[in-house]
## 1
Amino acid sequence: MTTLFLHATIITVNTAREVIHDGYLLVRGQHIAAIGKCPPPSSITSSDSEPEPETINCTGQIMIPGLINTHAHLVQSLLRGLAEDLPLHNWLCDAIWPLESVYEGDDGYHAARLTITEMLRTGTTTFLDPMVTYRAGWEGVCRAVGEMGIRGCLGKLVKFPETNRQLSITDPRDRDLINMSVATLIHHHQQYHGQHDGRLHVWAAAGTPRGAPASLYRDLGDACASHGISITMHCAEAPRDREIFHDVYGCSAMQFIRDTKLCPQPLPPPPPPPSTSTTRTTTQSGSSQTHHLVLAHMVNLDLEIDIPLLRSTKTAIAHNPSSNLKLASGIAPIPALLDTTTKIPEVSSSPPITISLGTDGAPCSNHYDMIREMHLASILHKGANHDASLIPAETALEMATINGARALGLETEIGSLEVGKKADLVLVDPYGRGGVGAAPWDWEDIGGGGVTAVTTVVHGCTGRDVGVVMVDGVVVVRDGEMVKGGREGEGEVVRQARMAVRGIRGRCNSGAGRVGGVLKCGWKDV
Ligand SMILES: [Zn+2]
C-alpha cells in the first residue's frame, strides 16, 4: 500500500526542525519513503511493479508527527467526571481505587475502546498506560489495542501492599496482589510483548511507593534490568508523596529510584568478536542500556538532589499539567528540569532530561486530547514563573512528539516525520471542521510574519480539528471519523461504555459507599 500526501504544511520535528510549506510525503508500507517540497519528483512513485499510490490532497492542512501520550490510563475513561474537586489522596482512596476494584468482565475492554477512539480522533498514535489493573482484564485491553490499530505500551501493574494504616491509605485493589507480582509481569512480557506487528509493548507499571519495603522495588528493578522490561511509575505527585519518601524511606524521590535500581542500567560491554574485527556492537535493538524508565508527574521534588540524579540515571519524565492542576498537586518545575545551564559540575556533562507529555486518566483531566495538553503545558509555566518566554509552542510540540518517542526508547522509529521512520502522522485541518478559532492562519503566506503553523496547532486548534490519522502506514481516522466502524461504530463504543459504568457504579455503591458525580454549591438535578 502506497499513500502520497500532497500540498501539506509539514511540521517535521526532524533534527533540523524544518517546517516544509507546500510539502509532500510518501508512505510505502509501514514507513515514510520520501518527504520534501511539492512537486514530488516523478521517480518516487513511477514504478511498474507498484500500483498507483492513493493521493490525499492536504491543501490548507498541517501535518504533524503522531502525538505520543506518555501517561494515559486507558481503563479510566469510564470514570470520567466521577471524582471531581478532590485532592489526590482522597481522590484515590475514596473514589478511584474503590471504583477500579469492581471492574469485571469486559469493562476494561469497553473502556480501552472508548479511550483509544478518543486518542486516535484527537491525533494520538502512541501511548504509555501506567497502570493496567488486574480487574481491568489484561487480555481485553490488549485486544482493543490490536483491533483499533493504535501503538501502545501497556504498563502491567506490579503492586506491593499499599494499604497502610499509619498513612491512612486503604487500597481495595490489594486483594488482587497475587496477580500483580513480578513473576506475572515477566510472564505477560514474554507472552504479549511485540504482538500486533510490534505495535504492542509490555512495560512494568510500578505501584507508587507509599510504605511498601524498598527491597521489593529493588527486586522489581533487578528483574526488569535482566529481562529488558521498561518501567513507568507515578512519582512525587502530591506534596504528601515527597513527605512519604523522606519519612518512610529516608531519601528523596530520585535517591529512591537510584537505590532500588528502577532506572536503566548500562549493559555490560559485548564480548570481543571472534575475528580480528574491531567493530563494536551493542544489542540487537542498538540500545546500550537495559531498559527505559518514565516517571510521571514529578511535581514535588528535592531539586538540588533530584536534578543531577535524573540526568545521570537517564530517567525520562511524563509531564501532566491538567492532572496536576485538577488534583491540586502543584506545578511540576519543568523550566528548572529543562535548564541545561546548570552550575552543578557532575551534571553539566550528562545529557538533558527528556520531558514528555501525558494527559493522565479521564477522572483527573477529563480528556485524552494531547493538543489541549500541549496548549496548557506551554502557557502554564509562563504564568507560574512570570516569564512569558518559557515553553514556547515549539517546545510543547517536541514534548508531545520526539521527546515522547525518546522517553519510550522508540526515537529511531517514531516521533518525527523523516524517511525510514514508521508512518505515524496526523493531519490537522484548522478550517475543515467548521472552526474559525485558528483564523486568519494562512498557509499561503509563508515567512511573511503571519502566525506560524506551530502556533496554530498548539494554541489555535484542539483535537477536534484532527482530520486524518495514520498509524504504521494505515489510515485509521479519515474525515475526523474512525475508518473502522465510522460514526455508527463510535456510537456503539459510547453505548457500551455507558452500560459498563452503570454496572461499576452499582457494584461500588452496593454497600455504604457513595461514589459518583454530584452537583455542588447548592445546585440540584430536577
Ligand atoms: Zn496517572
Note: Residues 71, 73, 130, 234, 296, 360-361 surround zinc ion (CB under 6 Å).
## 2
Amino acid sequence: MIRWYHIIMEAVNVVTSLLSNQYAVISGASQGIGAEIAKVFASEGAAVILLARNETNLRQVADEINRSGGNAIAYPMDVSITDNWRKLSAFMKKKGLSCDILVNNAYWRKLVPIGQLSDEDWQQTLDVTLKSYFLGSREMIPFMLERNRGSIVNISSLQSHIPEPSFGAYAVAKGGVDALSRVLARDYAPVIRSNTIIAGAVDTPGFAEGDDFKRELGSRLPAGRIGYASEIAATALFLASSQSSFITGSEIHADGGRSIT
Ligand SMILES: NC(=O)c1ccc[n+]([C@@H]2O[C@H](COP(=O)([O-])OP(=O)(O)OC[C@H]3O[C@@H](n4cnc5c(N)ncnc54)[C@H](OP(=O)(O)O)[C@@H]3O)[C@@H](O)[C@H]2O)c1
C-alpha cells in the first residue's frame, strides 16, 4: 500500500514539476542569484548545467543539488570566451545533453566614474556582462531549435534604466542586455522566448555592502527591504516555464518598487 502511495506521488511530482524533462544552462551559477536559480530549477525537475570560473564553489552548488535528488553538472569555464562556449556545446552533444532554458546571469564590473575607466576595464565589463549573453545565446539556440522550444532568461539590472554614479560601463552593458533580449525574442519567435529580469538591489555575495547600508537602502524602497536571491529565482522560474508562455520580449522589474520612487 505504502509502495503504491510512493509510486503515485512520484508520478504526480513529475506531472506537476514545472521544468521536468528540460535542460537548463545557467551562467554565473557558483554563488548568489545564479546558484539560487540552479537550485530552484533543479527542484522543479530540470537537469541543470552550471557555469562559472570558481570550480570549488561550482561543485559545491552541484553537489548540494545532486544530494537533494536533483540533477546538476558543474562545468567550470570563463563565459566571456567564445571558444569555451564551443567546447561546452561539443561536450553537451557528446554526453547527450541539450538545452531548453538558458539563463544569462554572469557579470563583472568596476565602480568608478566613467571618465576614469581604463580601456581594459571597459572591455572586461562588456565581455563578461554583455558579450557572454550573446555567446551563450548563439551557442544554445541550435539545441532549442532542435527541440522546437526554448526560453532565454537574461538577468539585467535597474542600473540600465536608472544609473547610479560610477556604475558606467556596467549600466551600458546592461542596456545592451535589455536590447539583446528583445532582439532574440524577435529573431526566434515563436519557437524561443526571450525575456529580461530587471533586478534591483539583492542580497548576494556580489552585493558586498554592510548590513547597515543594506537596511538603509532597503528602507528607501517601497518593499521596505532589499531583495533575496530566491525572489529573483522565482521570477526566473516563471519566465523559464510555460507559465509565461504568452510573454516574450518583455522586462519584469524585480526591484522592490525602486523604479516607481
Ligand atoms: N545583487 C544585486 O544587487 C544585483 C542587482 C541587479 C542586478 N544583478 C544581476 O544579477 C546577476 C547575478 O548577480 P549576483 O549578485 O548574484 O552576483 P555574484 O554573487 O557576484 O555572482 C556572480 C556570478 O558570476 C560568475 N562570473 C563572474 N565572471 C564570470 C566569468 N567571466 N565567467 C563565468 N562566470 C563568471 C561568478 O562566478 P566565478 O567568480 O566563479 O566565475 C558568480 O557565480 C548579475 O547579472 C547582476 O548584474 C544583481
Note: The pocket of NAP is lined by residues 27-34, 51-54, 57, 78-80, 105-108, 128, 155, 157, 199, 201-202, 204-207 (CB under 6 Å).
## 3
Amino acid sequence: MEKVRIDVTARNWHPSPLAGPIALVTTVDAAGHVNVAPKSLLNFITVRPLRIILGCSRSHHTAQNLLAQGECVLNFPGDDLIDKVWAAAVFREPADGEVAARGFTELAAERVAPPRILECRYHVECRFEMVHWFGDECVFYLGVAAASVNADAATAEDPYTLLRPVFFLEPAVYGTINASTHLD
Ligand SMILES: Cc1cc2nc3c(=O)[nH]c(=O)nc-3n(C[C@H](O)[C@H](O)[C@H](O)COP(=O)(O)O)c2cc1C
C-alpha cells in the first residue's frame, strides 16, 4: 500500500491515529462554583497505583481549579449526551448552577469535593499529584481516589453496549465504542 505523509505541525490530524476518551471534568473553585468542561487528552499512565494524565490549557478554569483545589471528577458520558458534551466547551464565567446550565444534574462524589454528573455512566474521582508545564499547556498527573459506574453496566455481559463511551477524533468528529470482543 502506498503511504501518504501526515503534516505533523498541524494542530489536528486527519485522520487521527489516537482517539482521546471524552470526559466531562468537574472541578470547584475557591468560591465553591462548580465548573464543567469536556476533555479528551486523557488516559491511564500508571496502574500501581492507578494514575491518570490530563492535558489542559493553562488558561482553562479546569486547570486553575485543579491547581488551587487539587480535585476533580472525570465523568464519562455515553453517545446519547454528545451534543451537550460538545456544548459544554463554550466559555462560561464561573457562577452557581453551571452543571444545570449545561443540562446536567449534580450527584455528590464519594471522596472528593467536585460532584459527579448523574447523566454520565462512569465516574473517576481524582486528586492532583503533579503538573508539568509546556508553554500554554500543562499535563496533570492525577491519583485515582474512587470510581463508580451505572449498576447495569457493572453486571452486564458486555458493559460497553451500555456505556457506549465516546472518543475525540478531530474537531466536531467523535467515535463510539458500542461493543467489545472477547478473545477467549
Ligand atoms: C470533545 C472535546 C474535548 C476537549 N478536550 C480538551 C482537552 O483534552 N484539553 C483541553 O485543554 N481542552 C479540551 N477541549 C476544549 C475545552 O473543553 C474548552 O476550551 C473549554 O472551554 C474549557 O473549559 P474550562 O475553562 O471550563 O476548563 C475539548 C473540547 C471538546 C468539545
Note: The chain is about 15% helix and 40% strand.
## 4
Amino acid sequence: MSWRDERNALSRERLERAIPAIFPATVLRHALSRPLKPPTPRLAVESYWRHHLLRADRLARALAACSGQPEGWSWRLGGEKGAGLPLTFRMPPSPYREPAHARGRGHCCICGQPVYRFGWHRDLWGAGIPNKNASWHSACVAAWKLWTSPSDHVKILKAGQRHRCAASGKRLFKTAEVDHRVPLYRVWREHRDAPWPTLLSFWGTPNLQVVNRAVHAEKCGQEAGERAARRRLAAAEAPSESAIPEGLLSDPT
Ligand SMILES: [Zn+2]
C-alpha cells in the first residue's frame, strides 16, 4: 500500500465517522473522488467550493441579492479605524463587514445571509437557527478569493472560456492574463451608486475575462491614456489661485 493509499484510507475512515446522516450528496461525492481525500466534513465542503469556483461566485452573488443593500448604506472608501471600509476601489464593497451594518454571529459577513453547519448556506438539518460560531459561508469565502485575486484562478477561468481569448477569439497562450471587462476605476467612477448586489458582479465572472497578454497590454495602455486625459482635463478645469479675482481671497472688511 502506497503512502497516498494509506493516508486516503485513514481520511476516508475519519470523514465517514464525522459525517452526519444529512450531508450534501454532491459534496460527499466530490470528497470521495479527490486524489487526496479531505478528512473532515468542513474540509470536504471547502474543497468542493474551491473546485467549483464559478458556482461559488454565482451562489455568493445570489445570496447577496437575497440580503439586498442595507438601509442607508453607500459605497465609500476610507482608512478610518474601525469603520471597516475598504481602502481602495479595487476591493469589492462589503456592507455586512462594516460594523454599522453587520448582522452578527451566525450570519455571513460577505453576503449577509444565515450560515448553517459546515459553513453551508441552507438549513439542511432543520436547525431553524443559524450556526452561532460561523461568520461566513464556505461558498462566499471561495467567491471572495476569486473577486480579490482573480489572477490566481486563471486556469479555471480559461477553462470556462474553452481556452479562447475573450477579445480576439484566438487560442489562449500560457501567458494569458485575467482582465476586468469594465475596469474597476470606471466601476467606482460610473457605477458607484448601483445597488450593492449589482456592484458585486463587476468583481465576479460577468466582468472577468481571460485575454492574451498582447491584447491585455493594449487595453491597459488605452485605459491609462484615458485616465491621464481625464486628469489633465480636470486640472485644466479646476480654478487655480491666480485665476481667482484678488478681492475674493482677501477679507472684505
Ligand atoms: Zn455568504
Note: The beta strands are 177-180, 208-211.
